[in-house]
Amino acid sequence: MRVARVYDPPGPDDGARGLVDRLWPRGLAKADAALDAWCREVAPSSDLRTWYRHDPARFKEFADRYRAELEDPARTEALAALARLRDQRVITLLTATKAIDLTHATVLADVLNAGRT
User: Fold this and answer.
1) DSSP assignment of 58-91, as one string?
2) What is the pTM of this model?
3) Which of 3, 31, 67, 98 lies at 20 to 30 Å from 10 by C-alpha?
4) Helices and strands counted in the chain (H then E)
């Protein structure tokens, strides 16, 4: 599983490309996104995203809060759908965030990888 910026061109090893942001990325035409899925249901809540503001000092707490949000039954099916896709082929989780290592997509990849059997 990979994590990449949605603005980057698709790579030969991307497999299925899924945008995991709640909001559509600025300046990106839907026709140019090269997406297989837009999985906004697994994105952090607006309240959590607003609280975090990509502050590196808050990342650990953000990751903990986001993991707790992913346990909500309302998100279970969307998370399970991503896991099924992951089991079928390589998947690249896409986000508009510049700092990939401090984004929810990295936390989501960790959650999905931990769920492998």
Assistant:
1) GHHHHHHHHHHHHTSHHHHHHHHHHHHHHHHS-E
2) 0.92
3) 67
4) 4, 4
Bridge-partner residues for 114, per DSSP? none
CA pair distance 74, 77, nearest whole angstrom: 7
Q: How wide is the angle at C-alpha 64 spanned by C-alphas 71 and 94, nearest 5°?
A: 75
Q: Is 3 exposed, middle or buried (0-12, 13-18, 19+ CB in 10 A)?
A: buried
Tens of pLDDT, residue by residue over 6-22, are: 999 999 999 999 999 99
3-state secondary structure of 12: coil
The three-state secondary structure class of 92 is strand
